[in-house]
């Protein structure tokens, strides 16, 4: 195995060094990896018939099931996906298959919730093969914390000119909060359009309220990095007009003057995968690989995004490599399963991983082949396991926020 900056002979993927830490989902410590009990028999990862069982269960379900695979998912699972994509594309794909009785979502919890919101209530059941597949970023914004933050803004007379915008990577309850307060959902592809829309509304509300500067505000949830990168780099908002609201501190750790002066109030959340990349990683790869193009996801820190050559969503990264000049060198800052697959699909390119250590989405990796086989075999037997159902009121308001996103130009 080569390290990050040593390319293997000729064109090929430069694999990061293995981490000495526990790798979740790698079968090294099954006791610690099994966070959630599975009713019935979860096949052993070592079962030699696992692939055969998956093929048989998938065939038995036929058109009754539709299997979605997120880009960051393991290869062993992706091979059974009927469609692959980012969270929003997958939710829309699920909604476009009303004939499928079961939607098996090989992703994380908030994605399955979005699929449940967008699919038909009674006729379709959304299944998450392992309920422990959460998202650390989504978990950083709990609804009671967000309600409390809104109360803080309300007490200061700022809520009326604040429009909430939540990233797709948030719980259904947070999407519903956004819908209830006249905001929208955004993805990493349309965050700029969403923020421009939200500022128009917030500024109009500010002017109507007779606020001194008439300036409205955005409360951006839950990823501070996507919010900051979009506001500063795409909308030209000054960096010091973005403040970070820490839900663990009274009033978010901000003074009344700071909140009043802010244009963007960023929730203190981040992605544990993309947050690992550093500006030093960018420097190191530039020093080691001549003419390398560094491309990162906008969930990366601001200093990483500004040091990179290109920034974009997973779909953007996939398209960029599809269109790349043969022989060109790339260093990619996003989840490792995706980068590995892209490297394998593009042997004509030099594809490097930006981090010096292994960087999987450990929660996404909880969906492994044993869990997929278990969920499918249970469905074949007539038992629905791990069904994801969003409360009807939250589903309604989350749908309002999602529909607002769909009405934004360019989607
Ligand atoms: S990669 Fe980050 S944002 Fe995406 S599911 Fe994993 S923890 Fe959440």
Automatic annotation (TrEMBL):
Classification via Pfam families: NadA (PF02445)
Note describing how the cofactor binds: Binds 1 [4Fe-4S] cluster per subunit.
Subcellular localization, as worded in the UniProt entry: Cytoplasm
GO biological process, one term: 'de novo' NAD+ biosynthetic process from L-aspartate
List of residues binding iminosuccinate: 70, 87, 167-169, 188, 297-299, 314
GO terms for MF: 4 iron, 4 sulfur cluster binding; metal ion binding; quinolinate synthetase A activity
One annotated Gene Ontology cellular component of this protein: cytosol
Gene3D superfamilies registered for this protein in UniProt: NadA-like
Annotated residues for binding of [4Fe-4S] cluster: 135, 271, 361
Known pathway: Cofactor biosynthesis; NAD(+) biosynthesis; quinolinate from iminoaspartate: step 1/1
EC number(s) reported in the record: 2.5.1.72
InterPro entries: NadA (IPR003473), NadA_sf (IPR036094), Quinolinate_synth_A_type3 (IPR023515)
Reaction catalysis annotation: iminosuccinate + dihydroxyacetone phosphate = quinolinate + phosphate + 2 H2O + H(+)
Keywords: 4Fe-4S, Cytoplasm, Iron, Iron-sulfur, Metal-binding, Pyridine nucleotide biosynthesis, Transferase
Cofactor: [4Fe-4S] cluster
Family named by the database record: Belongs to the quinolinate synthase family. Type 3 subfamily.
NCBIfam families for this protein: nadA, PRK09375.2-2, PRK09375.2-4
Function: Catalyzes the condensation of iminoaspartate with dihydroxyacetone phosphate to form quinolinate.
Protein name: Quinolinate synthase
Organism expressing this protein natively: Luteimicrobium xylanilyticum
Gene for this chain: nadA
């Amino acid at each position: 195995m080569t390290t990050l900056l040593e390319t293997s002979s000729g064109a090929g993927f430069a694999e990061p060094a293995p981490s000495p830490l526990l790798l979740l989902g790698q079968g090294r410590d099954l006791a610690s990896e099994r966070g959630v009990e599975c009713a019935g028999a979860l096949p052993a990862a070592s079962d030699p018939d696992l692939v055969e069982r998956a093929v048989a269960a998938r065939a038995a379900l036929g058109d009754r099931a539709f299997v979605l695979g997120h880009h960051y998912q393991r290869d062993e699972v992706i091979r059974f996906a009927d469609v692959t994509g980012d969270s929003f594309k997958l939710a829309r794909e699920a909604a476009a298959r009303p004939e499928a009785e079961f939607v098996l979502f090989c992703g994380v919890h908030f994605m399955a919730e979005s699929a449940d919101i967008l699919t038909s209530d009674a006729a379709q059941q959304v299944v998450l093969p392992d309920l422990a597949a959460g998202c650390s970023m989504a978990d950083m914004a709990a609804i009671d914390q967000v309600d409390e933050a809104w109360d803080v803004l309300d007490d200061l007379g700022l809520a009326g000119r604040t429009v909430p915008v939540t990233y797709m990577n948030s719980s259904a309850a947070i999407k519903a909060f956004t819908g209830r307060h006249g905001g929208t959902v955004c993805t990493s592809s349309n965050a700029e359009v969403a923020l421009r829309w939200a500022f128009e509304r917030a500024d109009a509300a500010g002017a109507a309220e007779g606020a001194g500067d008439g300036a409205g505000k955005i409360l951006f949830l839950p990823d501070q990095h996507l919010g900051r990168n979009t506001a500063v780099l795409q909308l030209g908002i000054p960096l010091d007009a973005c403040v970070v609201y820490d839900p663990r501190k009274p009033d978010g750790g901000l003074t009344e003057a700071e909140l009043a002066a802010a244009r963007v109030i960023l929730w203190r959340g981040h992605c544990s995968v993309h947050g690992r990349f550093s500006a030093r990683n960018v420097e190191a790869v530039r020093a080691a690989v001549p003419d390398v193009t560094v491309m990162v996801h906008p969930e990366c820190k601001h200093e990483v995004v500004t040091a990179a050559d290109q920034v974009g969503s997973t779909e953007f990264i996939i398209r960029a490599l599809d269109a790349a000049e043969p022989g060109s060198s790339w260093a990619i800052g996003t989840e490792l399963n995706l980068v590995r697959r892209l490297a394998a699909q593009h042997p004509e390119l030099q594809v490097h991983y930006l981090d010096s250590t292994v960087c999987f989405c450990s929660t996404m990796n909880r969906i492994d082949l044993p869990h997929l086989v278990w969920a499918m075999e249970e469905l074949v037997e007539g038992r629905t396991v791990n069904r994801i159902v969003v409360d009807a009121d939250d589903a309604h308001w989350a749908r309002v926020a999602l529909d607002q996103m769909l009405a934004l130009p360019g989607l």
